Amino acid sequence: MSRSAELAALIRDRAGTEAPRLGLILGSGLGHLANQIDGVAIDYADLPGFPHAGVSGHNPKLVIGTLGNTRVAVFGGRAHYYENGRSDAMRLPLEVLAELGAEGVIATNAAGSLRADMPTGSLMLLSDHINFSGLNPLIGEPTDRRFVPMGDAHDPGLRTALRDAARAEDVDLHEGVYAWYSGPSFETPAEIRAIRTLGADAVGMSTVPEVILARFLGLKAAAISTITNMAAGLSDEAISHDHTKAMAPLGAAKLEKVLTRFLT
């Protein structure tokens, strides 16, 4: 039995055998959303191979239960490339999600805005992404499955449903391209000018590896950014991780409304 199958069996023993329809990955400062789930929480420490909490603002628990009227698997924290030099750090959790029978995953993150019309507290639905880091979580995968097409990496159906949910909740949901920067240092003003020239609307240190892995595993994927700051050189804000955590709640309340409506 594979490690993902063993972990899926352990999770079913704890949380029941009904398959979650979707997975949710919560970004920095958004972990409290897991508290809205009516279900069973399992510490990552009880799931061998799951990432440990390496970043403050994340809540390292897997919560299986209901949000809206949909059964979900909520990952209260993620591992990042900058923590250990592994861009495939979220592969096992997503393999487990697929093993549990989920159809797709929605990732959330905290991001910096490159657009004046998308200030702190805004939400941005990812229409596409730029792998500015050049890293890839499928490097080393020995099979031809590694050649994953990414034309519709951000699933059109999920994006339409999320737009509809935002409209129903009267939440302004921007849409744009997210650029993945490896971190952990923040970007320089020159790097921000470069990725803006390339077509990016927001920048962050996560999510892209998870979308690639999701598509590799046959899961549909979508993602929403909570804008916690203007990117370097675009405002007088003092950018820091503490600032990110402090600003995340501004968008989190709106994100909670959108996700709850979407899942209902």
UniProtKB/TrEMBL annotation:
Which biological process annotations from GO are given for this protein?
A: nucleoside metabolic process
Q: What is this protein called?
A: Purine nucleoside phosphorylase
Residue stretches in coiled coil? none
Start and end residues of each Nucleoside phosphorylase domain: 21-263
Q: Oligomeric state and partners?
A: Homotrimer.
- By its UniProt entry, which Pfam families does this protein fall under? PNP_UDP_1 (PF01048)
Which GO cellular component terms, listed alphabetically, does the Swiss-Prot or TrEMBL entry include? cytoplasm
**Record EC number:** 2.4.2.1
Q: Which family does it belong to?
A: Belongs to the PNP/MTAP phosphorylase family.
Purpose of the protein:
The purine nucleoside phosphorylases catalyze the phosphorolytic breakdown of the N-glycosidic bond in the beta-(deoxy)ribonucleoside molecules, with the formation of the corresponding free purine bases and pentose-1-phosphate.
Q: InterPro entries attached here? A: Nucleoside_phosphorylase_d, Nucleoside_phosphorylase_sf, PUNP, Purine_phosphorylase
Q: In which pathway does it act?
A: Purine metabolism; purine nucleoside salvage
Which keywords does this chain's UniProt record carry? Glycosyltransferase, Transferase
The residues that the entry says bind a purine D-ribonucleoside are 187, 229
Species name: Jannaschia donghaensis
Q: Which NCBIfam families match?
A: PNPH-PUNA-XAPA, PRK08202.1, PUNP
GO MF, one annotated term: purine-nucleoside phosphorylase activity
Residues annotated as binding phosphate are 28, 58, 78-80, 110, 206
